[in-house]
Amino acid sequence: MTTAGEGPALARPGAPALGNSAAPDAWHLLKTARELTEPELRKAVDRLAEPVRSVAGYHFGWADECGRLANGEGGKGVRAALVLAAAQALGAAAEEAVAPAAAVELVHNFSVVHDDLMDGDLLRRGRSTAWSLFGTTQAILAGDALLAVAVDTLAHRFPQGCLEAVRELSGALLALVAGQGADLAFETRADVGLYECLEMAAGKTASLLAAACALGALAARAEAERVDALRQFGRHLGLAFQLVDDLLGIWGDTAVTGKPVGSDLRSRKKSLPVVAALAGGTPAGERLAALYHRTEPLGDDEIRTAARLIEEAGGRRWAQEEAERQRTAAVTRLSTAGLTPDGTRALTALADLITCRDV
Fold it and tell me: The pTM is what?
């Protein structure tokens, strides 16, 4: 399963900054999050020894494979934007949440570097993946280093909430690893159920979005109940996020997503639309199961056939409806967090942006 949030580009080319608009624009929130957190990310990466520093710099889009300066962006900054927006929604200044926002982005990129290697993906953000250029050993070390500096960033740049923040992030990491392990195990299983697939997505993707929102609340020194409300907002949003990414992994456009469409089907990933189709008891689902359980590699024609069968078996429709249900559940949780009106609008705008994509 593709790590959520690393598929299609979210920001509109040339999207305007809206400044002090009463209804914060989500595009502007993402842009602001990148501007605030990138200096912290660069400081963290600059601390790494070579050649790991160059691998990480390439992964973030700051350099090409030869170490020359590049103008790429290190992802869309969705998780950082959630940290900052959650903190501001509870009355804190965005600057108070920059350290946890950077830490979350470092953890996310650690998982992305390793995920690309485990899945054998060759493209990320429209460029060759780190492991495919620098080799598996250097990619593993780069991912490990990003995780280490993420924890160190919390310890040294967020002293006012370090202990709780490290516990929050550690819990998310444990869930993320469990989800990743389940995702890999599902590839060789024929009996994956829809509930356990949702649990896998909750670990692999939703756990870090939940932690991002909770860390923003911790930066604002919020009470435990409000922290948990934002954590649950992030969890539901993360599930919606993964559902949309799974849909785009099957029916998206490589020119937009920056990743090869059909790679999950080629490797027989048990993504959510696939499992929903297999569990539906339809003739199309039975034909999909026969195709998925073949030992021979799937060619381009078989991948197109698999995508058609998933749609005929109802997997696409179920995933679209479940994504909307999870988005609605996320936004509903905001009403229990005691947020400012602008804060509620900002988080709702981010939820809409990252889930209402063309699938």
Answer: 0.90
